[in-house]
Amino acid sequence: MVTVETAESVVDSPADRAERGRAVRRVVPRRDVAALHLPADRPDPVALLEGQAATRIPELVPIRYGRMLTSPFAFYRGSALLMAGDLAAGPQSGLTVQLCGDAHLSNFGVFGSAERRLVFDLNDFDETLPGPFEWDVKRLAASLEIAGRSAGFTTEQRRTVVTATVTAYREAMRDFAKQTNLEVWYARADMEDLLAELAPTLEKKALARTQKVLAKARTRDSMQALGKLTTSVGGRPRIVSAPPLVVPVEDLFPEREADEIYAQLGDLLAGYQSTMAGDRRHLLGQFRLVHLARKVVGVGSVGTRAWILLLLGRDGDDPLFLQAKEAEASVLERFVGASAYRHHGQRVVEGQRLMQASSDIFLGWERVTAPDGRHADYYLRQLRDWKASAEPEEMKPHGMVAYGRVCGWTLARAHARSGDRIAIAAYLGSGRTFDEAIADFAVEYAEQNDRDFAAVEAAAATGRIEAVSED
Q: How many C-alpha atoms does 438 have within 13 Å on its Cβ side?
């Protein structure tokens, strides 16, 4: 809603907003964000994961545990709930932004914008919710520390990576604080511009590797997915079965009539289209649904319901792959309050649109009864749209510094779009106090992550939980 200024209305000036941020320092000094304040009654990490598993597909839960136990970094990717509780037990700035809720390194990446440009941005919003800005910063910083340990970096190298990332966040927020609302809204990390800026700082091998990743990203679209994921049956494309990771709907529910299943899916698509802009509804209306399969995705998301939908346009060479992913309550909700949206698919989509500079043109949501009979909220987007992400555990120290700085800038831009960027910038200040404090926190949390990883590993060894390796 646009605010209409009247004689009685009072608009906070930039100076007032900056003073608000500086005042927060007196309540939550920046050095205080360094400490990890674990609750005295901190829940058993295994029990927390078991609680999440209660609503998930039982036969897929062992795959989730198996993926998490491949490394401490993989475990961290799947343990957003554990960290949310730990963050809630510590000091909080009260400077609220739209949080990603799971801002680790692997949730940043490259994808295609609506203008067909490669952009770098956050790309996972399952846990998005308003909350204290520093929670995302801490999750990002800890992921760098943990990935650096997995990659064999020295203590000094890891410190350099983490502080460079937080410094980039702080400096970007201070820059955004000086910009107009529209300048902040239009800011984005275009990969061509970004690569030109980074090229002088990258080693030749790292630059060549990055260029190769970007070239490959441009091939990752629905046409590529058609060749990789489907075969022709009776002259019609069908998604190939690769259980348990990809299972066509007919194989999951052989006792049910296909017409009944596809009628439900027709309802899903019809309702989902109503959440899209008119021009995009028109575009989607030119496609017809031809096949569906359940697909296992991610690490922390394994066990939630995720479906891939194959649609065709003018002919068999005009495919569109959509992903319909179940949206449960954010892990943050039990600590910062319920979402303003009653539909969790809408929560994800609205958060994504607010934080991203350019979102998928097919992004939308719907509540539906899935083929397995479960009533659930879903959000939909393209399965592949020039998507690519880095492998943090394979990076060299110099490369991770560069990557971390881009992530720091990107996170600051996302927060600046939704929160009071002037107050946050004033709280952060021009010195390195906040940067060093977050780096200290990252070390402490990496050690806690190791302890939680060991606890879950022990639970798998004793048979308390079942973990399935995919090797």
A: 29
pLDDT in tens, 424-459: 999 999 999 999 999 999 999 999 999 999 999 999
More confident residue, 268 or 301: 301
Q: Which of 416, 411, 404 is nearest to 174 (CA)?
A: 416
Q: What is the pLDDT of residues 214-225, one digit of tens each?
A: 777 777 778 787
Q: Judge residue 92's burial from the number of C-beta atoms within 10 Å of its C-beta, 0-12 exposed, 13-18 middle, 19 or more buried.
A: buried
Mean of per-residue pLDDT scores for the chain: 90
* Beta carbons within 8 Å of 405's beta carbon, 6+ residues apart: 164, 165, 167, 168
Q: Rounded to an integer, what distance in angstroms lies between the CA atom of residue 236 and that of residue 16?
A: 64
In our burial notation (b when 16+ CB lie closer than 10 A, e otherwise), range 122-144 reads bbbbbbbbbbbbbbbbbbbbbbb
pLDDT confidence band for 297 (50 / 70 / 90): confident
| Beta carbons of 111 and 123 less than 8 angstroms apart | yes
- The span from the CA of 366 to the CA of 273, in Å, is 9
Cβ–Cβ contacts within 10 Å for residue 353, how many? 15
Domain limits of the chain? 14-34+43-218+400-462, 222-382
Q: Compute the distance between CA of residue 293 and CA of residue 323 in angstroms, rounded to an integer.
A: 10
Residue 217: what are its φ and ψ, rounded to 5°?
-60, -40
CA–CA gap between residue 197 and residue 59 (Å, rounded):
47
Question: 175, 169, 167, 177: which is closest to 133 by C-alpha?
Answer: 169
